[in-house]
Amino acid sequence: MTQGETRLLLTKIPYFREIILMSFACDQCGFKNTEVQSAGQIQERGAKYILKVTDEEDIQRQIVKSDTGVFRLEDLDIEMPAGHSQLTNVEGVLLEILKDLESGQRKRKQEEPELWEKIDAIVQQLLKMTLNQKFPFTITLDDSSGNSWIEPSPKDKDLKYQRTEYPRTATQNAELGLGEAPASAPTNDNGHTSQPVTLSNGSETAHVVPQIPSDIQDSTNLEGVDILAGHNYSFPTPCPGCTKPAHLNLQLVNIPYFKEVVVSAVMCLHCNYRSSDVKTGGEVPRLGKRIYLDVREPADLRRDILKSETCCVKIDEVGVEVVPGTMGGRFTTVEGLLTQIRDDLHSTVFESEEDEAGNGGDSMPEMKRRGWNQFFEVINKAIKGEMAFRILLEDPLANSYVQSLEEEPEGKDERLREEDYTRSEEEDDELGISDMRTRMGEGGQYERE
Fold it and tell me: Of 72, 3, 12, which is closest to residue 36 (Cα–Cα)?
């Protein structure tokens, strides 16, 4: 048995994090192999990237696909499953898919001509994509470990690039070696099966026992209990980061002239995981809502703002567009929202210590570095109140809110404007509204109203 040689290189990917490049080669048989692994730990949440490829520059965007990442070419319904990890670009992934599909085509043409014809049609479309002759097309990369990545650009607008984080399910945690797979439903001290309660962060249901406020006695769950504004409710829940026992704290808050919202926070004493979210309740409204706020002075930066998880935020003067699901729900001020957007982007683009001065690392192209620096200069001016701009909140569920500076609800705030709009069919599909059946039909079956 002969020995090959494995080489390792620790390197930093701009906009991302450190990774380990591994290369194996055997001089005797000529076998070669390359892989990439994350140099960090499994992230606290999973991540999904969506990129609409529209030009030659997008074809060259870097991609890190970990061994738990699933890549999809949505237009052709092609999926590259989890397994082999790699550092490449969009073109490289397309060429790898093309190579896999072309292998064995000569034999298929003779033995299975119908199958060959179907695969050949896909191959021809892939060739056009790699030759920059077929735009646009959409790719997605979903990784429950959070260690895959698609390169962003400061030019991305109009939902061209989307990155969303999500809490892992118990099954996904088990696949990553973070815990055991879910077992049968647990029982309480009386031998009865405990009722599942859906967590506010949208994860799978977990069997939890709430800690009821002291003025409510002899209760082991929330059934028949009114959740009162101003009271804190605490639930034991698995930590999304390490799966050990953590606490989910809830509180009902009443926003004047708007509606009641539930503020939630998860805290883990084992891994120091922290997260917060805001959920609104009530029925699904018939129309969506757009809220326009003209920020002209520091007082406008101090307005309360509620951004729901289904809300899209656009600030054209700053070049900011936050797609639904990116930041979750937030109840803060205008200044706080801008600060969080800036900090999240800055930690992503200039993550390593040597990049804190805004250099972006030696491997970041000068033009991209300059573009990001200009972007942060503009958003810093907006946070300091040194420029005027307009914020647009577009929420298909009308669950977002901006505080009016008028003391009376009937008063007119000249810098704040709201309008209702009819949701598109695509928005109804994404929100699951198209599948809702809430009215009993003549045949005894539920149908859509």
Answer: 12
SS3 105: helix
User: Is the previous residue joined to 324 through a cis bond, with omega within 30 degrees of 0?
Assistant: no
* Degrees to nearest 5, angle at CA 278 with 275 and 279: 130
> What kind and span of H or E run contains 427?
helix 425-431
C-alpha to C-alpha distance for 317 and 387, rounded to whole angstroms? 9
> How far is residue 135 from each of residues 77, 88, 138, 158, 395, measured CA to CA in Å?
16, 20, 9, 16, 29
Contacts 24+ apart (CB under 8 A), 434-440: 436/284
Asked whether the CA dihedral 190, 195, 196, 199 is positive or negative, the reply is negative
Q: How far apart are CA 57 and CA 368, in angstroms?
A: 12
Describe the crossing of helices 90-102 and 113-130 by its angle, rounded to 10 degrees.
160
Write out the two tokens for 52.
């609409």
Strands 62-65 and 416-421 come out as unpaired
Q: Which long-range contacts (CB under 8 A, 24 or more apart) does 293-298 make?
A: 293/334, 293/390, 293/391, 293/393, 293/402, 293/415, 293/416, 294/388, 294/389, 294/390, 294/415, 294/416, 295/334, 295/382, 295/385, 295/388, 295/389, 295/390, 295/391, 295/415, 296/388, 296/415, 297/385, 298/385
Residue 126 near residue 80 (C-beta atoms within 8 A): no
Q: Which of 143, 141, 125 is nearest to 133 (CA)?
A: 125
Q: Is 137 exposed, middle or buried (0-12, 13-18, 19+ CB in 10 A)?
A: buried
Asked which of 312-316, 343-347, 401-405 is least confident by mean pLDDT, the reply is: 343-347
What percentage of the chain exceeds 70 in pLDDT? Answer: 79
Three-class SS of residue 96? helix
Q: Which residues on adjacent β-strands are paired with residue 233?
A: 250
pTM of the full predicted structure? 0.65
d(CA 354, CA 358): 9
pLDDT tens readout for residues 326-380: 787 888 999 999 999 998 888 777 654 344 444 544 556 788 788 888 999 999 9
Mean pLDDT of the chain: 80
The average pLDDT across 391-405 equals 93
Say if residue 216's pLDDT is above 50: no
Q: Which amino acid is at 362?
A: D
Total count of residues recorded for the chain: 449
Give the Cα separation of 12 and 19 in Å (integer): 6
